[in-house]
Amino acid sequence: MTRNIDEAFKEATEFIDIIKKPVGTVSLEERRKIATETVENFRDYINKGFLEYRKSVTEAGEFAVTEWMGQGSILKDALDREFIDILGGFGLYSYGIRHPKIVEAVKAQLDRSPQYSQEMLDPLRAKLARVIAKLTPGDIQYGFFANSGTEAVEGAMKLAKFYTGKKGFISMLKGFHGKTLGSLSLMGKNDYRAPLLPLLEGMRHVPFGDVEAVEHELKYAAAVGDDIAAVVAEPIQGEAGAIVPPDDFWPGLRQVCDKYGVLLIADEVQTGFGRTGKIFGVDHWDVAPDIMCFGKALGGGVVPMSGFFSTPKIWEVMEPNPFMHTTTTGGNPIACASALAAITVMHEENLPAQAAEKGEYVMNRLQELSERHPGILDKVTGKGLLIGMHFVDDEIGYHVASGLFARGVITAGTLTNARCIRFEPALNIPMELLDEALNKMEDVFKSLPSS
Questions:
Q1: Is there a contact between 341 and 106 (Cβ–Cβ < 8 Å)?
Q2: In the Enzyme Commission scheme, what number(s) does this protein have (predicted)?
């Protein structure tokens, strides 16, 4: 690529001018140009591999589906094609796209200060921490804010090591905690780990839902002097396909961690803030972890936001030198305004209850579809609106995902990874949109040869 500073400034200015235009005034010709250039720009400046996996390119015809705007549970592309969103940004859009109360709070804070000075005390971060302390179970009270879920997990790992003086962790097979090196060390999937080995030492992986396996590893580690700082798990495994553990798993984890003097870390990045039908995933089993990680929905789907929280006793190790763990942009005022507004929306709209009710409805409908059209769905798993549709094989899963896309419904699933597709819409998605998406899913099932 030849350096051309003038051209860079010119292109940036032209695109900002388009963004500033009132909604509905960007011409169709301009939007077609944007759609075409977006594919070229992904190919030449992001990663051409993405284009092979995106249905927005492979299934879209002459013009790729280029995301342009959204509201609630409806996405619209640059050519005005509309889609029902049942993917929900993999849990990002728990409150829907551009919830007006959250956007309003962010705009108001932008008029004051979008970032903080790094020297003065910032009231929004302090207030948000207080609010989360009042929402969380047990003695969770102190926290640190960052920008992404993997940063929250990294911070939790550092805190556990710092407090215990130990290096090892036990995590779950098929678990997902992020893709930075520390979080990746916890991951229970070979595909992402193997090319980057060796990762952090002292990692052990056990089957999700198996308390006895956790206790065996703790016993073996103690026998050979491999100290374990913490056990890390998602309350319900998201990336693995909305896998719900046995009801004795989380209470059992709490007991065995107490028995062996190790910390219990709950990765609530995907399950937190109403997604599973409770405010937090661990609330289904009335368990209080030692450290909790948050992300995705915490920022209200408007500003990226994450955090990790713990008890006063554990957090004491951070007090002598509070600069042991810092970030320049984490917990910035607009992110905190977004998170505070999101929490009020969660309460005002009773989103955990909505997730529980709608989740039960969706799972019943999917089970009925499976019975009417055998040979397509193997099983349906999950809680609330974190639902996994497990298909007989990848090929069928991809045909369902691409068939839904062609009918104006956004979900995930690629040619190489579609055996399980998550059904994870906004918690406040209207029932009529849920029904429309499910009806279109039955249309796809009917079109498959096995039906």
A1: yes
A2: 2.6.1.77
Phi, psi of 429 (to 5 degrees): -60, 130
Mean pLDDT (whole number) for 131-160? 98
How far apart, in whole angstroms, are the C-alpha atoms of residue 438 and residue 451?
16
Q: With contact defined as beta carbons under 8 Å apart, do 169 and 157 qualify?
A: yes
Q: How far is CA 345 from CA 94, 112, 299, 300, 348, in A?
A: 10, 22, 12, 9, 5
Residue 294 main-chain phi, psi, to 5 deg: -125, 160
CATH architecture of the domain 101-348 equals 3-Layer(aba) Sandwich (3.40)
* CA–CA separation, 289 and 276 (whole Å): 17
Parallel, antiparallel, or unpaired: how do β-strands 142-146 and 82-85 relate? unpaired
Q: Which residues pair with 97 in a beta bridge?
A: 72
The domain spans of the chain are: 23-98+351-447, 101-348
pLDDT tens across 354-413, in order? 999 999 999 999 999 999 999 999 999 999 999 999 999 989 998 999 999 999 999 987
- What is the rounded distance in angstroms from the CA atom of residue 255 to the CA atom of residue 258? 5
Torsion of CA 184, 301, 39, 408, to 10 degrees: 110
Two domains, one topology: 23-98+351-447 and 101-348: no
- The residues, any chain, with a CB within 8 Å of residue 363's CB and separated by 6 or more, are 380, 382, 387
Which are the contacts of 320, defined by CB distance < 8 A and separation ≥ 6?
none
Separation CA 184–CA 165 (nearest Å): 21
* Strand intervals (E) in 246-341: 263-267, 291-294, 306-310
Cis peptide before 198 (omega within 30 of 0): yes
How far apart are alpha carbons 245 and 231 in whole angstroms?
15
**Beta partners for 230?**
169, 263
pTM to 2 decimal places: 0.95
- The pLDDT of residue 193: 93
The H or E element that residue 370 is part of is helix 351-372
Query: Which residues on neighbouring strands pair with residue 84, listed in sequence order?
Result: 74, 409
- SS3 string, 76-145, reads EECCCCEEEECCHHHHCCCCCECCHHHHHHHHHHHCCCCCCCCCCCCHHHHHHHHHHHHHCCCCCCEEEE
Distance CA 57, CA 130 (A): 45
User: Using only C-alpha atoms, what is the Rg of the chain?
Assistant: 23
Please tell me the CATH code under which domain 23-98+351-447 is placed. Answer: 3.90.1150.10
- Determine the Cα–Cα distance for residues 439 and 208; give it in Å rounded to an integer: 33
